[in-house]
Amino acid sequence: MLKKTFEKRSIAPNQAIKILEKSGLKVSEKEAEDILEIMYFLAKLLFKQNLNS
Questions:
Q1: How many CB atoms lie within 10 A of CB 16?
Q2: Which residues of the chain, if any, have pLDDT below 50?
């Protein structure tokens, strides 16, 4: 998967699980961690791209 970073995160995996369950998705804690890692990566990427444009 992606390289794990040790940055402060505002959403914990257990919070992500609850949010996804409200949408009808059942995920494990590991899957929630992977989803959050991808989301943080994409958010950081978009932020950097917007700064450069």
A1: 20
A2: none
